[in-house]
Specification:
Elements: H1 3-13, H2 22-25, H3 29-38, E1 69-71, H4 85-90, E2 99-103, H5 105-110, H6 114-117, E3 127-133, E4 136-145, H7 147-154, E5 175-181, E6 187-193, E7 203-205, E8 208-214, E9 220-226, E10 229-231, H8 246-254
Antiparallel strand pairs: 1-2, 2-3, 3-4, 4-9, 5-6, 6-8, 7-10, 8-9
Length: 262
Amino acid sequence: MNDVRELLGRAAEGAGKPAFSAGAVYAKAARIRRRRRAAASAAVLVVVAAGAFTLPRTGGEEDPARTSVASAGPSASPTDPAPGRAERLAALLPGDVGEIEEVSLLALIKNATPEQARTTHLGPLDGQYAFRKDGGVGYLLLTLMDREALERKTGRAADPAEDLCARIGQEPAREDCVREVLPDGRTLTTWRDSMDYAGDDSVGWGPELVGRLAQSDGSQFLVRSSTGFEGTGTQGPLLSEPPLSRQQIKELLTGPAVLPKG
């Protein structure tokens, strides 16, 4: 199941408007890329300027559409006065990952209002981030889901020991899937997703790396390290590789910075 498609659909359903098409958000990436290569001389990507959008806060829960920008590496510090999520994330990563900006995919792709885009975060770094590097723009999505929410989503009991690399029923096997049981008993699974899904051509997602860290209490971290998207709301061309590697995903998910305090 694609968590971004579910996010976009769920947010739209609560807005009292016609539901956003999941296919319009996660369109067939391969078809988009082939079309882009075939018409490279005439293709024009709509690039949103730096600091693409800042939607006003309306009170209540934290508004993920509000952006903050930071450069990864030593210049960023988690001890700065009231650093934003982008700054705190940048402080954990090497400088060569590029400039990091907190974004809302709903706002970018579907022009969602702050109310539609608002999300409750369990983890201190949960959010959606744009990574700008070498002229391209990729994305990182980080989400912590507790056991209750996970079971509600899947419709079955959470199993921290589940082997996500094993093929289940008619589901396609996960590509280049690696499962690792950590010394503390948690299970980290990473795999590649080509994002080659059928759909219309309004948005096409590039390949990505996915990471899931299953914890002993049944909660689960999810990371999607995406090369980006093309079409409606694009901020720039795809990155040549996902913004974070497998090792960087592992270091991020197993570090203390992603854990809720207390």
